From TrEMBL, chains A, B:
Annotated protein name in UniProt: Sodium/hydrogen exchanger
Residues covered by the Cation/H+ exchanger transmembrane domain: 39-437
Sorted UniProt keywords: Antiport, Ion transport, Membrane, Potassium, Potassium transport, Sodium, Sodium transport, Transmembrane, Transmembrane helix, Transport
Domain of life: Eukaryota
Segments passing through the bilayer: 23-45, 51-70, 112-139, 223-245, 265-287, 307-329, 341-362, 383-402, 408-429
Entry similarity comment: Belongs to the monovalent cation:proton antiporter 1 (CPA1) transporter (TC 2.A.36) family.
PANTHER family: SODIUM/HYDROGEN EXCHANGER, SODIUM_HYDROGEN EXCHANGER 5-RELATED
The organism of origin for this protein: Camelina sativa
Pfam families: Na_H_Exchanger (PF00999)
Gene designation: LOC104714258
Subcellular location: Membrane
Gene3D superfamilies in UniProt: 6.10.140.1330
């Protein structure tokens, strides 16, 4: 990278150093131009309602094309070094804002009202998907269908490839307008399954490096340590920030800069705290995002609320676009050995199967627990199954696996993951619109009501929980599920009666909060949902 | 630095790597906590109207204290590595936002109405100050008063130490309320002299590395290349952005995120473009800031205007505070040889003399050109002379000089600069309030009129330019100065009649623009001026 003024360096080879730094400057320049191009192209395509190439796909393609051109004209190898992409940069500056924003942009109410289902899909479902993928890849290796990896590495691959990406599919959901419950399910699942996938990956990675003297019990403990520990750290930081903003009295007009400065430091604090404690920063920052949106956010002044929403949206858009460009560029530049083709092909087949096991299995369980009028319809399950494209998180974990695993293995996983990301983003991203229409889960009736729809649906849910208690339950298993269901409902009660009043300046009255939110909503066209108006 | 999940690494010494990464996480955690502490402390001090310790000084002190504690408890040297501060990070992420914001927060009107004086102080004055400092340091070395450096290195030191910092003094000016013209002079001078100081430094550095076969003429050419080239690049990017936003039609409600993403990419583009062309990115981004504020900004939608103002203010506050903390930390941690004490003492003496030569010399020239009722009063000149504290820019250039110069020399300059920064920030920063009161340039009459005052002063200037033309001029030199003065006035005309209508959606009518600005002002309590309300 270039640093100002080093361009006039000392005695030792000033020409070479100068050239190198100039090249770095040109590289960053090119990256900025690609970013600008992506934003403009994405905008033009959206304006012309061309849903076959969403913004993420456009970014990927731009990366692919520029990478391809660079590859052809690559007489000197300098172009490769322009894009000298540091892992550090990715993990410290690109990933945290993306993950925080995915937690921060969760609308708390539809999320909490579908809490049971979302947790089932993302915790149990991701576990199932990881294991199924891992085992199938292992069996595939045994049967010489694909590159052979040890079982634990297969499970690592299974975990990392089970992290789905919310970006592309959801932007199309928003453009087209879809059922609020489906939206909440897809979004909630793809956000929380990142946390699960990371925890599984780390656990498997630990099992791998201390393979002797580990028993199954220890694996479970390790997993809980990572998942619960990181979650607690994140939630703790979130609650701390809520209390700070509640009592510091910073929501006065002329202290907005101070308020915003402090607010944006908390997510990073959460990330680094978890890392310092040997936990997962990503899982921690995700939960900090959810908690800060639900509690801290409402303690801010109205101007600051508007600002921080726009701020995190901006930062994460930039980071996301950059990641997609980079992935495209990387796959075009990388010297790929074609022996990976089999691995890629069968992996795709297996993740499709594994996701079916996840969605339809968990869907069955959830439906057992839900009363008749709230069952998740098959069309929604199919949409959820179809929405499993892979993105930044899988890529990040694959990048990680190159460090964690022996030479050839990590490289194979990385190549396969990059290919899967590119293919799923282009294919699934491009066909989501068609799929949603085919499944008839998109309709004009839902269009304008996405904002207020939450409200209606939610109040229906609230009462339906009460109805549940009267309904006599069927089998013993069903009773257990219903109890879990009720505990999710009682979390909503806990939140309403204790958490919200304690951590916010709000009195915990949901209707009140809604008025405030709706009020903001009108004035925040920055938020994802703002795109809706675009169609008209 | 830590990267997520590398915490469970491979076979080779997992314990050591794990520890190292945990330490890095803890280091960043500590930095975030220091940032939070700085913001909170600064806020508390300001709220209690304790002007002897402004925010920058508070940050410096926090850095000094933590550095001192770390130094004492430094049984293992790990703490030093926690603060492993990369030059790259500084030049790529901290400096650009600070410099851009200083250009972006320039209020165009008082700046342009004092354009002649500001340019005189910052171009001619900084040149004088650099030469005087450099020559005095060289003479001091010859007379064994201080560490002896070659003449060209003395001039490099003179250049870098002539870059003054706007932050601390101006925040106090704002708190106390001062004359608008004085404010414009101090701010304009400290912003533009950074560009001049960098260009001089680079020129001297080039002279040094190609010492043979260089004549005086080539030095001038080199200087113009850097200064004019970088300025043109910056202005060019700024104008391009203005045209893009004028015609792209992005100022619709639901495209704010796109609009803001593109807007924040331009400054970085300007920075990297200049670096890629072997020019100065810092000078370029500064002028991009001035142009984008004056033209591009008014092509944005109202919401985006509010957002980008707050965004750049936030980013630069964070960067600035971090830089001051780091400087404090660095001076506490560095192993200083006490032989530098003499160098520091005499340097301070010399920069005081050099700044006097700059301010009173240029003040005399400016007053020759100005009509009687517009002369810069001696009290203002004294205030300007006093406000010359050193900050991030001098520090950055000194950091650079460690790379550019031989071992001992660069280190001496770096130590001296850090010490000068800390001393001037603490002493001048702490006493500015007292000084302003002693000079009687602070008063309640100016307090509330800072916003509207510009207007009044400006319209008076506009007419006074016309008056000038009738007044018969005195000597031939005076005539020349008046002509320069008129050219500054004609720039204002050019801007009003051609540039503003061409680059903005505005019709170039100043009154109109003012209404818009005032309108925003009411709704942007984020801006620096918003602090004013704080006093009441």
């Amino acid at each position: 990278m270039s640093s100002e003024l080093q361009i006039s360096p000392a005695i030792h080879d000033p020409q070479g150093q100068e050239k190198q730094q100039q090249a770095a400057g040109v590289g960053i320049l090119l990256q900025i131009m690609m970013l600008v191009l992506s934003f403009v192209l994405g905008h033009v395509l959206r304006r012309h309602k061309f849903y076959y190439l969403p913004e993420a796909s456009a970014s990927l393609l731009i990366g692919l094309i520029v990478g391809g051109l660079a590859n052809i004209s690559n007489t000197e190898t300098s172009i490769r070094t322009w894009f000298n992409f540091h892992d550090e940069f990715f993990f410290l500056f690109l990933l945290p804002p993306i993950i925080f924003q995915s937690g921060f942009s969760l609308q708390p109410k539809p999320f909490f009202s579908n809490f049971g289902a979302i947790v089932t899909f993302s915790v149990l479902g991701t576990f199932v998907a990881s294991m199924v993928t891992g085992l199938l890849v292992y069996l595939g290796g045994l049967m010489f269908l694909m590159y052979r990896l040890p079982l634990v590495e297969c499970l690592m691959f299974g975990s990392l490839i089970s992290a789905t990406d919310p970006v592309t599919v959801l932007s199309i959901f928003q453009e087209l307008g879809s059922d609020v419950n489906l939206y909440a399910l897809v979004f909630g699942e793809s956000v929380l399954n990142d946390a699960m996938a990371i925890s599984l990956y780390r656990t498997m990675s630990l099992v791998r490096s201390h393979s002797s003297g580990q028993n199954f019990f220890m694996v479970i403990v390790r997993f809980l340590e990572t998942f619960v520990g990181s979650m607690s750290a994140g939630v703790g930081v979130g609650f701390t920030s809520a209390l700070l903003f509640k009592y510091a009295g910073l929501d006065v007009d002329n202290l907005q800069n101070l308020e915003c400065c402090l607010f944006v430091l908390f997510p990073y604090f959460s990330y680094m705290l978890a890392e310092g404690l040997s936990l997962s920063g990503i899982v921690s920052i995700l939960f900090t995002g959810i908690v800060m949106k639900h509690y801290t956010y409402s303690n801010l002044s109205a101007n600051s609320q508007r600002f921080v929403s726009a701020f995190f949206h901006l930062i994460s858009s930039l980071a996301e676009t950059f990641v997609f460009i980079y992935m495209g560029f990387d796959i075009a530049m990388e010297k790929h050995s074609w022996s990976h083709l089999g691995f890629i092909f069968f992996s795709i087949l297996f993740i499709v199967i594994a996701r079916a096991a996840n969605v339809f299995g968990c869907g069955y369980l959830v439906n057992l627990a839900r009363p008749a009028h709230r069952k998740i319809p098959m069309t929604h399950q199919k949409a959820l199954w179809y929405s499993g494209l892979r993105g930044a998180m899988a890529f990040a974990l694959a990048l990680q696996s190159v460090h964690d695993l022996p030479e050839g293995h990590g490289q194979t996983i990385f190549t396969a993951t990059t290919a899967i990301v590119v293919l799923t983003v282009l294919l699934i991203g491009g066909s989501t619109g068609t799929m949603l229409e085919a499944l008839e889960v998109v309709g004009d009736s839902h269009d304008t009501s996405l904002g207020d729809g939450f409200e209606v649906v939610n109040s229906r849910y609230m009462t339906s929980y009460d109805d549940d208690e009267d309904t006599p339950s069927g089998s013993g298993f069903r009773t257990k599920l219903r109890e879990f269901h009720k505990s999710a409902a009682s979390f909503t009660e806990l939140d309403k009666n204790y958490l919200t009043p304690f951590f916010t300046s709000n009195n915990g009255d949901y209707d009140d909060e809604d008025n405030i939110e709706q009020h903001h909503e009108e004035r925040i066209p920055f938020t994802r949902r703002g795109n809706l108006n675009n169609r008209g």
